[in-house]
Amino acid sequence: MRHQLFNIDTALITQRCVVRRFRENDGKALYRLLDNNRDYLLDHFPYLMAEAGRSKKGSEIFVRECIAEWLLQKRYAMGIWHNETTELVGFVQVFNIDWGVPSGEVGYFIDRELIRQGIMTEVLARVVRFAFLQLELEKLVIKTLIDNYASQRLARRVGFSREGELRHEYRLPGGTLVDLMRFGFARETYGE
């Protein structure tokens, strides 16, 4: 366990959002967000839907697991809360952390009603800063479906570079194997 991470920020502020660690009883808000975006999330985040999207109780269990994993320094999962509405409007996480490098993967989504408004750009830029400056990771990775052009543009806009295609890396819920595109961002190239 890395003692220097005991006092990292649990809330990150952007222009329009508060990105914060989940708290007990956030499960209802998470379930509402997942339910409102069910069609998109079933293809892009099937594990999240399987764990948290089935019921309010399942969402609360997922939230509490996220809290525990944060404390154990295994995953940093956060909700994206809109400043004006105070509603949970998205999810972002730094996961698959390899402390030996140290590196991690970033995953994210925002409510379909808020796509293409620049909110996720603000959030992802802030999470990258958090990962490099507070978690002290050396490398971040984003993997997107090969045809998820919006996510690929977002990754590039924030500073990630395309590293290649991963053939038959991901299985859709229907069973089809699809390719992923991998993007990377090294801390040495990060300029505040």
From TrEMBL:
Domain N-acetyltransferase: 17-184
Family matches, as InterPro entries: Acyl_CoA_acyltransferase, GNAT_dom, Ribosomal_N-acetyltransferase
SUPFAM superfamilies (UniProt xref): Acyl-CoA N-acyltransferases (Nat)
A GO molecular-function annotation: protein-N-terminal-alanine acetyltransferase activity
Record-level GO cellular component terms: cytoplasm
Keywords linked to the UniProt accession: Transferase
Superkingdom of origin: Bacteria
Transferase as UniProt keyword: yes
PROSITE patterns according to UniProt: GNAT
PANTHER family (UniProt xref): RIBOSOMAL-PROTEIN-SERINE ACETYLTRANSFERASE
Name by which UniProt lists this protein: N-acetyltransferase
Species this protein is from: Neolewinella litorea
Organism lineage: Bacteria, Pseudomonadati, Bacteroidota, Saprospiria, Saprospirales
